[in-house]
Design goal:
The complex is a heterodimer of chains A (about 350) and B (about 240).
Chain A: H1 8-12, H2 14-32, H3 36-61, H4 70-87, H5 91-113, H6 119-137, E1 141-142, E2 145-146, E3 153-154, H7 170-192, H8 195-205, H9 207-212, H10 217-243, E4 245-246, H11 248-252, H12 254-267, H13 274-294, H14 300-315, H15 321-335
Chain B: E1 4-13, E2 16-26, E3 31-35, H1 42-49, E4 57-62, E5 65-66, H2 72-78, E6 80-82, H3 95-103, H4 110-124, H5 139-152, E7 157-161, H6 169-184, E8 188-192, H7 196-202, E9 205-210, E10 213-218, H8 220-224, H9 227-234
Parallel strand pairs in B: 3-8, 3-9, 6-7, 7-8
Antiparallel strand pairs in B: 1-2, 1-4, 4-5, 9-10
Classes of the chains: A mainly alpha (about 350), B alpha/beta (about 240).
Chain lengths: ~350, ~240
């Protein structure tokens, strides 16, 4: 009997059935936990896991540190929203147009900036993201088109309209983002194991050596930013449909970009599960801190966040993915043979 | 047709002329040595040939194709491989991963790339070390890895930049036999070296660079007794006339 294309003994190995168990838990979560608060938290956790995975393609694998990824979120959110509000186009299709537009912007930005290395590229990404955000913030309308400016845009309320990407019950959104996260993980997995992954890694480790081995640095960096931009934009559309309200600093702000970077670095750059682990460990902490301490001690959750970041960078510069992986496989070994 | 033709090559960095009207022709399967005091322009010559720096004057032809305006990754795909004087391993990745990056220059499938890399690693004698991380290798192994990566790209011309530097006598001997094996496989070699004994024994022909100019060229025996060469390396007092 075959499971996911592999023989039955694959499933009996502890490290595999443990993993499958975790996946099953994720899918069954709303069946056990009915509280909307916790479902919202998990939606946010998975949303950030997905977002950070996309960021990881450019800033982890390719090593081009981006602190401006929110610009792609904003493009996705605004594109699908404007197309829906003005042309009635369902966001299910609008999100792909947002994705394409994000790729276009990514390549436009990447072409001149990829000759910058390290911190200079990062600064350029901040400039682009903040620049575009400012433009949107200060633009009420373009001709007859209402952009919303700083007040943002509300998505026309339809209550329950599956074909228009709107649901009253948040559980729908939970499953959408969960599937999106697994899509993102799959894309990352395929990159990791393919020529693209090896080439991006080589560029990250030593671009001169990579060139000498036949790697066109610019071409592959543009590929990385395109993949990153496209999938990030999809998350932007998701967020718009979830919140039914978008405004520039929320979907395109520096804090969102920094969030992705924090989670990615703490989780583990250039690994498949690093971003997911980072998000699953830290976003609940943030949400709990914000709920229970944040209102009494404003910004306390950020202090906690920052402290964890400092500790991780000092002691685990490659992220928490590696030690957690060791714990996981150690547990698997104890559960049985072939662990 | 010579595999590499460098004609009247000039390379300037602002006011400094690093390479001055340099000519060199290399036939297929030859082993040619390139020597000269520090700062003579040897690595610069490698960099210009592989497209790292643009040509300012003159021409370079590889298998009849002009290398004018070529980019480094293009140089590799048309068949020019090179190693770096200060080795550049992908430190946080395994030896096998490192060489696989090279393999992907010729194949697209991961399994094929792995098989090709293993072949190369067997050839250079690093099979027992394929799972070691780049950063945990000794200097001799790093140099060997550097060569393996370049070999995986399937070069017809291989530019070796001081692969013997920093090796003890035994390691040097092993490196010499590796170079000879590479030549036996039909790869043309242009070797920069400072260790005189090595380059004298390996090369069929040696060109000597000094201040960017070729001051001598010929078989090792003749070049080592050339007055100008001795003067360049050791100064006037050592010339025996």
């Amino acid at each position: 009997m075959r499971f996911l294309g592999r023989g039955m003994d694959w499933v009996t190995r502890p490290q595999n059935y443990l993993g499958l168990g975790l996946v099953a838990l994720l899918f069954l979560f709303p069946a056990f936990i009915k509280s909307m608060f916790y479902i919202q938290v998990m939606i946010l956790v998975i949303f950030f896991a997905y977002l950070t995975s996309c960021w990881n393609i450019l800033s982890g694998y390719a090593g081009q540190l981006s602190i401006g990824n929110a610009v792609f979120v904003m493009i996705g959110a605004y594109t699908s929203t404007l197309l829906f509000a003005n042309l009635g186009l369902t966001p299910w299709i609008g999100m792909f147009i947002g994705g394409a537009l994000a790729v276009f912007v990514g390549i436009l930005v990447g072409y001149p900036t990829f000759r910058l290395r390290g911190a200079y590229f990062a600064i350029a990404t901040i400039a682009v993201a903040e620049g575009l955000r400012k433009i949107v913030e200060n633009t009420e309308r373009i001709g007859k088109l209402n952009i919303g400016g700083a007040e943002g845009l509300t998505i026309p309320l339809l209550h329950h309209a599956p074909f228009q990407y709107q649901f009253v019950n948040k559980v729908y959104y939970y499953y959408i983002i969960l599937i999106l996260m697994f899509v993102g993980l799959y894309v990352t997995y395929r990159i990791d194991r393919s020529k693209i992954g090896y080439y991006l890694t080589a560029i990250r480790e030593d671009e001169d050596a990579a060139q000498a081995l036949g790697i066109d640095g610019r071409k592959y960096k543009l590929l990385a930013i395109s993949l990153c931009a496209f999938f990030t934009a999809l998350a932007g559309s998701f967020y718009a449909q979830l919140m039914l309200y978008i405004e520039p600093s929320g979907v395109g702000g520096l804090s969102l970009s920094i969030e992705m970077l924090l989670l990615g670095v703490i989780g583990g750059r250039g690994t498949i599960l690093g971003p997911v682990i980072g998000a699953f460990c830290l976003v609940p902490v943030r949400e709990m801190a914000r709920t229970y301490i944040g209102t009494t001690y404003l910004g306390a959750h950020l202090v906690i966040y920052g402290s964890i970041m400092a500790i991780v960078i000092l002691f685990l510069p490659h992220g928490i993915e590696e030690p957690i992986k060791k714990v996981y496989f150690g547990l698997a070994k104890r559960l049985g043979p072939a662990g | 047709m010579p595999i590499l033709q460098i004609k009247n090559l000039t390379k300037r960095f602002g006011g400094l002329t690093a390479i001055n009207h340099f000519d060199l022709e290399i036939e297929e399967r030859e082993i040619v040595g390139l020597i000269g005091p520090n700062g003579a322009g040897k690595t610069t010559l490698f960099n210009v040939t592989t497209g790292v720096y643009p040509i300012d004057g003159g021409e370079i032809f590889f298998k009849g194709q002009s290398l004018n305006g070529i980019e480094p990754h293009e140089a590799c795909s048309i068949g020019i491989g090179r190693t770096f004087q200060l080795v550049k391993p992908f430190s946080s990745k395994t030896v096998l991963y490192n060489v696989m990056v090279g393999s992907f220059c010729r194949v697209n499938d991961r399994k094929q790339a792995e098989a090709r890399a293993l072949e190369v690693l067997e050839f250079v004698g690093m099979l027992p070390k394929i799972d070691l991380l780049g950063k945990s290798l000794t200097i001799a192994d790093r140099k060997r890895l550097e060569v393996a990566k370049a070999l995986a790209t399937g070069p017809e011309l291989l530019l070796l930049d001081e692969v013997m530097a920093g090796l003890n006598p035994k390691e040097t001997e092993e490196a010499i036999s590796l170079v000879k094996e590479i030549s036996r496989r039909g790869i043309t070699l242009l070797i920069i070296e400072h260790v005189m004994a090595v380059i004298m024994s390996l090369s069929e022909r040696i060109a000597v660079l000094h201040h960017g100019e070729k001051i001598a060229e010929g078989p090792p025996g003749r070049v080592s007794h050339d007055e100008k060469v001795i003067k360049a390396y050791l100064g006037d007092e050592y010339v025996i006339s």
